[in-house]
Amino acid sequence: MENQVRQIDIRAQGAALDSAHVGDIRGAFGTIEVADTGKRSSWMARFKTLMAIIGPGLIVMVGDNDAGAFGTYTQAGQNYGTTLLWTLMLLIPVLYVNQEMVLRLGVVSGVGHARLILERFGRFWGAFSVVDLFLVNALTIVTEFIGISLGLTFLGIPKIPGVIAAALLIMMAVSTGNFRRFERFSMVLVFASLLLVPVFVMVHPPLGQLAHDFLVPSYPQGAKLSDIMLLVIGIVGTTVAPWQLFFQQSYVIDKRITTRFIQYERWDLVLGIVLVIIGAVAMMAFAAHTFAGKPEFGNFADAGAVASGIAKYFGKLPAQLFAIALIDACIIGASAVSLSTAYAVGDVLSTNHSLHRKPKEAIGFYAVYFTLIVIAAALVLIPGTPLGLLTNAVQTLAGVLLPSASVFLLLLCNDKEVLGPWVNGRKLNIFTAAIVAILVMLSIILTAAVIFPDISSEAIVGILVGGSLIALVVTLAVKIIQAKRTQTLQVVATRSPVQDRTLWRMPSLDQLKPMNLTLGTLVWMGVLRGYLIIAICMVAYKVVRMAFG
After folding, report:
1. Are 306 and 322 in contact (CB under 8 A)?
2. Which of 121, 107, 116, 95 has the alpha carbon at shortest distance from 432?
3. Helix, strand or coil for residue 33?
4. Alpha-carbon distance 308 to 314, whole Å?
């Protein structure tokens, strides 16, 4: 009875859109009852709590080392050695900051990312966020099944029954109506990703060179700047993907994690980042060492060809482990990306969307998930499907849309109606704004390179310099206008009452005050909207032209 009363009380205070999002935490490795409010004073108690909480950060990070990551990291290694390892080191703080912000939004608001965008920025951006997420995620899932087919082919397993079996496994894993079972399934896949470590050991690349290239930025000698920039953008895009933001926020909510356990979830995220960096470094390193001084160096084809090269120069066992790790990564990637879409649709439509529910209790949620998996698997099996074109399309669209996802994330994390005392601090805002600016520049370069494949190094430098100057001019103009406005207004400073952060949660959506957007924010949102419309139209035109020759 006490447990039931506690659940009702929390539901009444929060903004949960599905009653299944409130209750006991039932993780893969432990349970925390909703009525458990005791302090964790011993190391054993804290360890047990961490084991119960662990999961979201590991799954979202390892899930990002998917088919696209296998292709991008091994391409960097095969074509340029380990000279681009330093990009991974620079991405570590970016990964943590982005994902920490969405997990904070999740535990404080109790509402998914897509719904918050809809409520705080209006129907246009809400619909845009879901539609673009659906499109990019659908294409991403196709690339996951392409990766599965490559791994199966190398292992000598027939493609058609293998892909069908993988699709059935991915669908069965979520359809039990038991959150714990899905998380345990996912954690098996997470730990299986460590198969890349024995591959690294058996190929044994030089550790001293790896350490140097990881810590000291360098430029591949003789390489075109345009090619390097595109690959760096690919590394950024495959490591920091839009679906991650939507997935982790919703998954944290579905796991019923609240602000009381946010520090444990941050440690879960750190562990996930460690695993994803280990995997990325391993792939780039053993691909570089495998092909160094060989005819295949500089001639990357796909992850299947990498497996064949490892088998040729280091034997079948490491190549087979690599292929198994590829299939494993694609399965966890497909399940996580599909879930991020199903969660977003359920959030926006306010329908049941929880892994705690059986399919008959959340028909729309599971229908979205199953449809994405079935269509992706079917496309890979249909002869003549332009798989290479689809792969290029998803990488380009993800790069184009990533800045908008980052902009909304930054704005939401400064919305006091949503986060109250949990809003970003000044230093975090400065760091995140710099990241967003860099992502926008990279996105523009990527779009230009897709439309104009022969873009020169001078043009890329011009985009970087020109974009920076335009941003500076617009920012200064907005600041001047704002300064003139404030001179005519009487500003009264008020101090908000001290609040206990561990107890503060966002009220229900209908109680939120409208978002007060500054002139600068409105200007930049207008610029962003214009850029996205132009870039998406240009990319779509290019894809259609390529499809029809």
Report:
1. yes
2. 95
3. coil
4. 10
Note whether 88 and 214 are within 8 A (CB).
yes
List Cα–Cα distances, 7 to 11, 90, 327, 356, in angstroms: 6, 42, 40, 15
Bridge partner residues of 363 (DSSP)? none
Cα(408)–Cα(417) distance, integer angstroms: 15
Which residue bears the tokens 């908000």?
A: 496
pTM for this model (two decimals): 0.86
Q: Are 118 and 348 in contact (CB under 8 A)?
A: yes
**∠ at Cα 344 (341, 345), nearest 5°?**
90
497: DSSP letter: P
Residues 6+ apart with CB under 8 A from 502: 259, 260
Residue pLDDT, tens place only, 331-380: 999 999 999 999 999 998 889 999 999 999 999 999 999 999 999 999 99
Per-residue model confidence as pLDDT tens digits over 150-208: 999 999 999 999 999 999 999 999 999 999 999 999 999 999 999 999 999 999 999 99
| Backbone torsions φ then ψ of 35, nearest 5 degrees | -85, 0
User: Which phi and psi (to 5°) does residue 118 adopt?
Assistant: -60, -45
